[in-house]
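Task card 7
Instruction: Convert sequence to structure tokens.
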Amino acid sequence: MLTLWLPVVLSTIACFFFSFLSWMVLQLHAKDWVRIDGEDEFIDQVRALKIPEGNYMFPGCANNKEMQEEAYQAKYKSGPRGILSVLPAANMGKNLGLTVLYFFACNCTFAYLASFALESTTDFVTVFRFVATVALFTFCAAIIQHAIWFRMRVVGHVIESIAYCLIAGGIFAALWPAA
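Output:
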């Protein structure tokens, strides 16, 4: 696996750079977040409630028994239903660093799996197929299940996942020991 340090590092950098491009240049996530009409009033109401940072579902319930109660069912049926995330101020340096760490950990995992599954003499196409498949499942899997339950937009994430898998697969295949 130590022979794969270069594809790990280069794939990490390339995926991070594409992540920047997808958000800032291609704007794949431009429609992921919609502004609320009456935003100022909404923010004032949320601020007045002094809700601590965290994730909230409304209507909410403490347990499954409460979910079955008539009062909860009436609230749920009448709506609105939603999810609210109350966030701290963004620390861009920390978030960007964690993103690099995420890509690095993913690419280390790809190298680890490839080093067990493939011989050092494996051809470009086989390495590409293996690493790209593992990468696609890695980058796509969690976000799609999350979208099923929480109705978030996934189009941009799926496009990014495909790009990340092609990037990692291509770099690993090009720099594989047999290359």
